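Action item from last week, closing it out:
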Amino acid sequence: MKLFEDFSKKVKNREGRFYSGIKDIALHILNFRLPLFWPVSLLYKALYFTHIFIRETIIIILKIFYFEPMFRSICGRVGRNLRLNKLPYVVGDGIIGVGNDAYISGRISVGFNDKFAEKPQLIIGDNVFIGHLCSFSIAKRIEIGNHCYISSSVKLFDNDGHPLCPLERKEGKAVNIEDVKQIKLCDNVWIGVSSIILKGVTIGENSIVAAGSVVTKDVPADCIVAGNPASVVKCLGQNSGK
């Protein structure tokens, strides 16, 4: 019995050393870094800038000859100097109007629900910036004024998406028409990253919505709101100059 136990211990020790050796080899491989002597460093620096140049050239070609023409083709109106980085993802039948010098950075999504309005509308003013991963759920109308900045991952809903009544949700019924209310962002509004703007909200001129806020009611002009639900935390003064 003792001989068998000694033999088992030797086998386990050998297995342990074997797997430990394999682990050490794997760590050495994973931690290996190519030495960057000056000739090698110059080579990789040249490769880096070549890679960036080719990538940016391809992106520019795609924007001019692919993304922008396709997006303009589904819009009711597009002003001059529209800039796109990615093709917006649009679902449903609605009207999109875009003003002059609009910049849509990254990929955004627009979902139209035409059960309550013949043509739900997304209206974007002049000199508007819309960040990456913003989404718009529209059953009636979302209007964005001039010179507005909408940071990345902002979500705007002019409807609840589903009925408030659990029985109606269980039956798969559509949202009630009284729970569809348009959203309006007045001129010079800035919406912080990952904020949510809910139905029926009007945000006054020059106002700022702090990052991560959930706006459930109207926001006065010339103020900053923050929190969930968002409330006024600071007044900016007339024309936001104070």
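Closing note: Residues 38-73 form the longest helix (36 residues).
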